[in-house]
Amino acid sequence: MDDKVESSRTPDPDAEDDDPSSTLLDLTSYQLHDLDAVELPSNLTELDLTANRLSSLDPRISHLSNLKKLSLRQNLITNAALQPLSRWHEISGLEELVLRDNQLTTIPDVSIFKRLLVFDVSFNEITSLHGMSKVSNTLKELYVSKNEVTKMEEIDHFHQLQVLEFGSNKIRVMENLQNFTNLQELWLGRNRIKMVNLCGLKCIKKISLQSNRLTSMLGFESCIALEELYLSHNGITKMEGLSSLVNLRVLDVSSNKLTSIDDIHNQTQLEDLWLNDNQIESIEGIAEVVAGSREKLTTIYLENNPCAKTPNYSAFLKQIFPNIQQIDSVVFS
């Protein structure tokens, strides 16, 4: 969790703006309890109130009709404090709303914002996505990490979604993803997921399922655009289902139960390969297994495997991969 930013600064309402035409007011880390001493110019398009001590919303914000971005990150905002927001019609053109790291327990009513593109309620105490169905279907980025959510629900209307972040929750099942044909990034690390179900997301480029309960790598076969796949800290015993992922650049299967390196001979774009903290006995034959990426590979991690104790282990890998820049924690100049 991000640390609270401590600062002794206080805003000077009489200070001149360096740029008179600026429409951004950044009050990050002023440790404000309210905005009484702050002037809010009527032409503001961005208001950043990150890392203060606000427990309520200043009603003057409701009259900032040009406002596009509002950040209340790292404050003391509760469910009750956000209730007026649903009636602030003058700022209904808001495109980005950040409520990260507050004291919310439910999804707030933001249905008034019909053009919302970014919605962030991460680092709260939200237990359910009930109410998410009222969030505008224009949404492109949704962040709900570090909450207490158990079920992926009321999200299937987000047809334009490009980034979905549900890391550090209590989700057991991947579901309701079938309409996300534009999704580029899916972050589901630190949950309780046992099985991959991606509903054929052919455009997705980044997937993280680190620190879950997976025992198999099957389920990614149709994600042919995938470039980065993070599966560390699971219980995976075999590398499989990767042959169709020809665009893969980063593969992280560290801290699993692998005994061999398999099924990556088709990868010609692979740059980073993380296999550390497994049970891989030998690197014999690795040249053939990673033949497609011999020229591209720049980073490989194999430490804390039995094979890493092989004499001249590092020199052997250097011979195989002519452009290698890092082996385990050793970086070559």
TrEMBL record:
Recorded superkingdom: Eukaryota
The protein, known as: Uncharacterized protein
